């Protein structure tokens, strides 16, 4: 009964377009008021909001957010696009492939799918249209490719999953995301190339102005951030939180001194944006922690586990049901609260099926990433359509092959745990 009240109220609040953080808080509060006395309910909500963000691991998030903003305005996107253009620009459908690679590179550096969609899409969609591609196809490529940065570290959502799972190593999660992220990227490249031939898009010949070594020299300082962060964490030189600080210092030096795309007068606006974004993320984490506590208190994860395991004894069928649920959740819920709310529900089921928390984390993030670019209300899809100036109905057809490529990646990653676990095991992280 409690679960029906909780999710019923939550769904109603979402339908009236209440911001998701407040929808979570009010749904939890109303449910507690109906099942617990008023004073304990109010005290518990306040406590869980505070306890939910009282974690040392979460200190890394504001630093990576700030580093992402510095990178986003520091001239990184253009240099990555130029490098990708030199690599694959002359191939059939080359500009679409440039879009995929640029989004993957920028997303992995910024750790944000929305930032990648805005930074790369704002440049690539008009450029692709000029070369003969439709805006709907260009936007579809940008939207799907931007989500790869959520798997390739450093990724804030992997830090959130570490918190929700009860302490899976952030370093292991970072390393585990590489091969799945690259797999998704490669399949999106293949799908984009097939779409190029299928729809017989005939763009004009692309002129590669910048030579290879020059474009590589311009992109290397940006790409080195990934090596610096991951290498330092794996080598034990610093913690993920300290890595966030180093990322900020490196991004600041790169943007101010090397690329010189940011002036000191711009820092105030960047800091304000970072504080606002951090506040939103932390509010989502606190609110989701309160809802997760209520579900645990009422025994909802155990009840859902029993229902799922009662449906079938086949692990693949159970994982299929979990995947379908997460794909649906991703279409209407931000990734941070989705991870915090549904990890305690589905992770125990996965562990009973013999799936490691590390592997399940990658499966969950990829599921929710696909949901973010799924019609009708995926948040990254919404941003991409705004950047590309197209309607969601226009993007449905061109996005389907790309969506299918991501589903193939999900199937492979779900079926073969070694894709997620081989690198962490090699580096001794699991």
Coarse shape: globular
Structure summary, number of beta strands: 0
Main β sheet profile = none
Q: Spans with pLDDT under 50 lasting ≥5 residues? A: none
Rounded to an integer, what's the Rg over CA atoms?
A: 21 Å
Structural class category: mainly alpha
Measured by DSSP, the beta-strand proportion falls in: under 5%
Total tally of structural domains: 2
Order of helices and strands: HHHHHHHHHHHHHHHHHHHHH
Helix content: over 70%
Could you tell me how far the N terminus lies from the C terminus, measured between alpha carbons in angstroms?
40 Å
- Determine the number of helices (DSSP H or I, runs of at least 4 residues): 21
Oligomer: single chain
What is the residue-averaged pLDDT? 83
Write the layout of secondary structure elements.
Elements: H1 2-15, H2 20-35, H3 38-52, H4 60-73, H5 76-88, H6 94-110, H7 113-130, H8 135-146, H9 156-164, H10 170-176, H11 178-198, H12 212-234, H13 240-258, H14 267-297, H15 300-311, H16 315-332, H17 335-352, H18 357-372, H19 379-388, H20 392-415, H21 418-426
Helix pairs in contact: 1-2, 2-3, 2-14, 3-14, 4-13, 4-14, 5-6, 5-12, 6-7, 6-8, 6-11, 7-8, 7-19, 8-19, 8-20, 9-17, 10-21, 11-20, 12-13, 14-17, 15-17, 16-17, 16-18, 17-18, 18-20
């Amino acid at each position: 009964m409690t679960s029906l009240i909780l999710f019923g109220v939550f769904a109603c609040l979402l339908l009236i377009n209440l911001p998701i953080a407040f929808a979570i808080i009010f749904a939890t509060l109303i449910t507690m008021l109906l099942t617990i006395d008023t004073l304990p309910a109010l005290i518990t909500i306040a406590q869980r909001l505070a306890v939910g963000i009282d974690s040392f691991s979460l200190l890394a998030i504001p630093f990576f957010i700030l580093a992402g903003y510095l990178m986003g305005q520091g001239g990184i996107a253009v240099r990555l696009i130029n490098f990708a253009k030199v690599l694959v620009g002359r191939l059939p459908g080359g500009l679409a492939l440039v879009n995929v690679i640029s989004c993957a590179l920028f997303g992995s550096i910024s750790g944000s799918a929305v930032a990648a969609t805005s930074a790369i899409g704002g440049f690539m969609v008009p450029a692709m249209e000029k070369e003969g591609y439709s805006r709907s196809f260009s936007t579809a490529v940008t939207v799907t490719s931007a989500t790869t940065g959520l798997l390739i570290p450093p990724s804030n959502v992997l830090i959130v999953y570490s918190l929700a799972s009860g302490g899976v190593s952030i370093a292991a999660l970072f390393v585990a995301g590489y091969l799945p992220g690259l797999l998704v990227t490669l399949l999106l490249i293949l799908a984009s190339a097939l779409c190029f031939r299928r729809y017989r898009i005939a763009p004009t010949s692309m002129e590669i102005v910048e030579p290879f070594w020059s474009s590589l020299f311009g992109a290397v300082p940006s790409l080195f951030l990934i090596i610096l962060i991951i290498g330092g964490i794996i080598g034990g030189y610093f913690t993920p939180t300290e890595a966030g600080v180093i990322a900020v210092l490196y991004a600041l030096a790169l943007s101010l001194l090397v690329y010189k795309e940011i002036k000191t007068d711009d820092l105030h606006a960047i800091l304000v944006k970072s504080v606002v974004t951090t506040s939103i993320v932390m509010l989502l984490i606190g609110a989701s922690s309160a809802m997760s506590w209520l579900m645990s208190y009422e025994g909802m994860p155990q009840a859902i586990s029993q229902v799922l395991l009662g449906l079938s004894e086949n692990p693949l069928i159970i994982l299929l049901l979990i995947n379908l649920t997460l794909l649906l959740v991703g279409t209407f819920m931000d990734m941070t609260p989705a991870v915090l709310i549904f990890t305690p529900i589905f992770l125990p089921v996965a562990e009973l099926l013999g799936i490691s928390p590390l592997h399940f984390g990658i499966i969950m993030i990829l599921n929710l990433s696909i949901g973010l670019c799924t019609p009708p209300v995926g948040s990254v899809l919404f941003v991409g359509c705004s950047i590309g100036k197209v309607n969601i109905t226009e993007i449905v057809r061109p996005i389907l092959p790309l969506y299918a490529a991501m589903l193939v990646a999900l199937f492979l990653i779900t079926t073969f745990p070694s894709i997620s676990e081989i690198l962490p095991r090699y580096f001794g992280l699991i």
